[in-house]
Amino acid sequence: MAFTADRAPFVPVRKHKASTSPPQSPVPSTPSSRFSRPEPAQPLFAAPPLRPLSTPLGPSTAHNVPSYTAQAGPLSARKVVAAPNDLFAPSCPSSPLPPPSSAPRIRAKITPLAAPRRKALPGAEHADVPVSSGFSPLKRAPPPSVSPVSPPANGFGGFGAFPKVSHVAQNWEVGALRGGMSGLGLGSISEVESRSVRKGGRDNVLVCVRVRPPAAKLAASNQIVDEIAWEVDRANGRLAQSTGGPDYFFDSVVTGSHNSDVYDEAGRDLVLDAMEGFDAVIFAYGQTASGKTFTLSGNNSNPGIIPQAVSEIFTYIRDHPEKEFLLRASYLEIYNESLKDLLDPTAGPVKIRQDEQKRFFVHPLREEVVTTEQQVADLLKRGADNRHVGQTDFNERSSRSHSVFQMTIESRDNSASSFPEPSTPRRMQTPNTPRLAPGSDGVVRMSRLSLIDLAGSEQATSQLERRSEGAFINKSLLTLEKVIASLTSDAKQKPHVPYRDSKLTQILQPSLSGDARVAVIATMNPSPAAIEETKSTLRFAQRVKRVVLKAVQHEVVDDKALITKYRSHIAMLEAQLKATLAGNTAPNTPSQADLAADQSRKKQAERVQDLERQVEEFRSLFLTSQNIEKRRQSALPPRPVSPIKVARSSTPPADIAALEEKLLDAQDEIAALKDERDELKSRVAELEADRLSTLQKDASASDSDKDARILELTKENQELLVIVRNADVEGEMKRQERKYERQLEKHRLYQEGLESTLEQERKRVAQFERFILQHLSAQTEVLAGRRRSSGGITHSASVTGFVPLMAESPQLDAISPDFVELDDLPFSKAGKETISRSRSRMFS
Ligand SMILES: Nc1ncnc2c1ncn2[C@@H]1O[C@H](COP(=O)(O)OP(=O)(O)OP(=O)(O)O)[C@@H](O)[C@H]1O
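Above are the sequence and the adenosine-5'-triphosphate SMILES. Below is the predicted complex in structure-token form.
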């Protein structure tokens, strides 16, 4: 299927009206039945919302106080003063639920067996039709309005779990969620079962749209847009442009500023799924400044999905005494198409590799074992500090990258293998042999919860750096759309899914290709100035809704699970400990109390201490409902995964590691080429299918149409022939080129031969020259002697001519002390005879 990108990433900035006057007196509203229930007025922000983890406020935040409200019925960007039933005021979970309307929406949590989940039809913007009445009985009950443990202290109501905190390092109120599933209204077994039923079958991506309060800064002009251009129907999960147009339906639509609302709709279920062994991915998608980071991270008084998910995880552990858990976390950034490990930013390049099942994974990536919420909060803060953010025209602190926070959850039945808490004397428990060979005692469930904050799609921006970042961001989001389009294509021949075209899609591949639970939170700005971007976001959200998933529970039976590795390692340490203790049998008699025995005892004691410390350290990584509180009070800093490797110093030598790296690179390249080949194959198949359907169409056409078609095809044929002939000419030219290249090569070889002969000749000539000069010199000596003795001499002219020449020759000085004999000369026999003859003619 040809993909047409209907996203408009570079929609030019629209001029939009600033709010010229402060909110006037309330426009009389005519609430429809949908909005007729008055909601208690809530201050949107009891305190100005902080950027998560103490990042400064964007100036836009100052305008986030919603003083306008959507109204039922067609609105055309109407201004309304904050009213008690303010649509954009934080929805208050403590307030009663809206009464069921005549055709209430079907919630995402309905099992396929109970009632079909709504599906958006391909390309249709209003295909998502409510199909049944009544609320889903399976919809998890909203959390109680007042937490039994900590009542809402911040005026938000809602989750009531995160009372206002004054400083950043503060935990997300670990105790606040105590009460666990029952406290959250999650205790019903039937609900958990129904979740499993749903997950066992085919499922779609869960899509929740979050509409931020309208007062957002949308352009470089600093103009504040405080109008809304959308009708928002929360009860039915429906959105429509106020000026008319199609309806958009989703699993849920959330307004206001309570992050707990979004968590209820699109967070909790997936987190619980992850705790039960299903991979789960939640990502926020939307235009820049539409509230993705706000939704995922939130702030201390209004925690986003990530901190709420983390709290949920720990609550779940507290509520499941029958299991033990091992948690680890990683934090990654994709900036300008390169990967950065946010927990270890100075480490070497982070790459994407493929496993045997062709699933992409990131390597190497630092993972840290975590045992408390505070550790996760610290880890997130550390990562966030390393993230790329920058000021854009639209957002004071815009995330310029995609970030992926991942928690890996391993769990195993606790009953057979629980560790005694240190109050029990450890040594008594130590077995002789490792009692926990990998996989020997039960299956480990392993799952990943990925929380992804995508960078925002952008309009044209005024800054150069931002523009190039924006190009990368838009490209990767476009690739994401292409991937989604391929996954939801109706074509018979499954199109190639271009995961490889961006790092983001490679990372999302394991989730999008089907075996994970996926939720997308599409964030949107309801302002008229953002209408094109918002439509594009909604279209994306509708398309992604059609991706079919089949989540599977991941059970690991071999020693891949860290839980198993650590358990085996502990068992091994315990065995060593026991052996060391058993070796300590020397009686402490005065005769043996010499220095050597003392030293050996000291060493042994140190060894025992060290082993005990190691055992303790490893044990402290396991979480159970019994020890979670203790861990919270005495947590060590999180530790990177693979301490076993370090302890055994089994790291391969640098050259082997480099070779392994090269091998992996080569394998990657091969895999990429194979992918490319597959893509070409699928393209060929697509073209063939296209051809075939055209032919079939042609067959049923009328005669005149057929004639026209024949004419068209003949023309096309002729054009193709020209191309083929050209291709022939090209081929001939290529052949000639190769011929000339061969000849050139021959000439080059010949030239090389000549040059080496020349070199030999030069050597020969130099030697001959030497020979001549040496002989001339000798003869000159002789002649000089004769002249001295006879007083006059007659000699041949040729010799006379040589004398001044010799005197001038600088080479005479350089004459080798080795006298060159005629026989030494590299000449043929005939040549040597000629030389001999001339010599005797000259010097006789
Ligand atoms: N629902 C909301 N209620 C109140 N304030 C909000 C809401 N959504 C967003 N904001 C505020 O709007 C500003 C921009 O939000 P945020 O940074 O989350 O946007 P973003 O989509 O992550 O943007 P980018 O893609 O540029 O990173 C922030 O100051 C944030 O506090």
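Confidence is low (pLDDT under 50) at residues 1-201, 418-440, 643-650, 792-815.
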